[in-house]
## 1
Amino acid sequence: MTVKEFYSKTILNSTIDKMGFLNVLVLSCTMYVLGSIYLVAGHTSCSRTSGLMKSIQYQLKLVEEGNGRCDCSHRYNKHQIGFLVRLNKHLQNRPKGSVVIYDNVITNDGNSYNPSTGIFTGPADGLYSFSWTTTTRANKYFFTDLTVNGNIIARNHAGHDNINVSASHTVVVHLKKNDKVNIKVQDNFVGQFIYGDGWSSFSGFMI
């Protein structure tokens, strides 16, 4: 059997209208490759052509099983992890080193933030982003740290001015499963005043 005969029986009898764009693209490439072989070599062995067609048929099968789409599920988290919380009430004279508990939960996909303790617990190993905003009253201050398992990662300085001041910070950190992340008042200062009513917030998500 010649390449031309094999090509005619195998490819042209396919039902193109049942295939997606990627199938047609693969078939087009097949036509080009087989046509080139035929034109350049004049003929080729059936076993070699059969091996080429088996490889192409396997690729077509993968495309068809994926409904014409790339299966990229391995690149993404199966479960979304992210939270946004904020303070409803103003806080005053918070003790040195105490955890800031954001009591108003807006988003908590994965339920990894605990509104009773103010602690986010990493549900899985990975790269995470966290942000927090602190707004304080004129002539007051409220200095905070973001900590992972008690270790300071970043600091936020809001206050000591004659106007209301808002300060924000964003970090990107690697976490292990069950690592603890929270915002706390800095150890050397009492947290004099922090605005609630949505002016102060804490958020994070797995990248």
## 2
Amino acid sequence: MESASEGLSTSSLDLLPMKRLKLNDNDGENVDVVVDQEWVPGESSKTKKKKRKKLELTKEQLQLLDQAIAEAPTVLPQEFINRINEMGGNEITLVITKYLYKTDLSPQHMRLSMPLKQIKNAGFLREGENQVLERGIISVVLLQPSLELTNLFLAKWDAKAKHDGSCNACYILRTNWMNVVRVNDLEKYGVVQVWSFRVQEKLHMALVKIPNVIL
């Protein structure tokens, strides 16, 4: 199996410039507190009103998803451990357990979002990497559910909501993400885990699909 990490620098953070972008207001991750809001057409800027879209899941379905996340394993599947050992990897750390929302699978967004408030261990990043993410992006190697390797970019976005000034920060994995979705048959509301590990100090990540309830 050809390693996707060939040709990537292991002595640097692979800093690339990134234009700071704002996430769309309809990029909410928590379905039970949907923030998908739109301006009502035809109204002036002074009288514009917002309307809330209906929840796509019932309360019972949301509870099933929450239960699946709460009961997700806290260790990597053995096949992932074996693959990481083959690569000489170490420092395996659980980053996040989440379910996939529509924007995670959207060709218009083309990224996996990982809200900071859901991150299990912020220590998966080195201090220098945190500094890089304040102004740029980091190249990472992703170990997919198929156990194939691919290259992605890790970035940090701060999404400032216009209606109340609140700020929702998240890490995102992007560039080639839609290929990951296709190859691994990722589905809406599927539960996944993202893990981090190191190979010769370079940041790698692993994406694990968690057996989920049928909604």
## 3
Amino acid sequence: MTHDGNKAEDKILTTIQQEYKILAEYKMIEAEKIGGIYVIPSFGNSLLWYGVLFVRQGFYAEGVFRFNMLLPDKYPDDNTVPTVIFQNEIYHPLICPFTGTMDLSHAFPQWRCGEDHIWQLLKYMQYIFNEPLDCVRLANITKWLNTEAFELISQNRAGFITKVKDCVNCSKEHVYDKPPTDDPHYITFDEYNEEVHGPIKQRIREGKDPMPGSTATGPKGLSWVKPEHKDEKAVAASDANQVTSNEGVEEPPLFPGKRPNYGTNNTLELLEKIPSKVVETKLDDVLKAVKDVDNLCDYTRCKAKTNLIGHTCEYCQGRYCFKHGLPEVHGCGEAAKNGERKRFLHPKPAKTIKQEEELAKAKKKLNAKLKDMQVARMQKTPGGKSDVASKTSKKKPNKT
């Protein structure tokens, strides 16, 4: 029963970690401000995303193409590339005319965890529609999903443009179709109504809030992220810098008032922060105080523990809970954005990536060996012999 319970806990923890990473991907897309493309995860399944692409230039200009994006079950730790399936009939060399599947093999031969992101995939999607000629010329592909479209764009440009225009007109006819699913996150559009949309349109042009008088404070978007308390405001994708309220929660007895943001894991520095009256008491209390502070989230006013579930920021080296682990939430948003852009513009060579993977495996193997040696030392008796050796020595010698 205990084994089954541990399995269930591990499964829940894995799911939480995965959805946290998906939330981070969603926030990266918002930070990039990719114009003309809209995506949102499904209400019931964070691995299924709905999207709509508005093409604003090139042969496919004025096209409105719906697509679904399926993330692998172990995303992002799996090297499997997400699958993009268009719901419209699209005439393009990189899109299968029968299934609507988009070929991503040229840009993403395999998915590199921590280096490849969904916002990059979306920008590549925009690129193949805005610049289909460059896409065909530069792509190192021997087998095209739509061979007819490839041959037409290479040999008969006018014929290709005619086919594309028919595709664009067809997509515009289905913009207001009824959704094929009852998922509340499926993106739908209403026909323009001057009475309803006119005032909103005018306020947007004037740079004002399109929905005046809105007092909604509940979670926005990302339905699978639930607030912990009724009075808390969830950190939504549209408001990453919103501070979650923890008023009414009792402070730890050793630290009356607002808990300082120590922002360090150094035990000596933590010990200096503890009140002197605590240090004068028993040593066990001091050690417990240091441990409590060291295991708390470094975000100001947050009481969440990070010893079991936590995230160390690669930019500020602070230790944060899942709620405040995103760089955009705890103040490292600009550093994260610059870092991702640098990695995208200057990717590491395949040889360097392979060396880093081998080094990580060697470190993991060394840590496992050190742990086994530590366990072996702990099992030894005070005399220096292990428990097995001491039991063997107590046996009577065999009579000859």
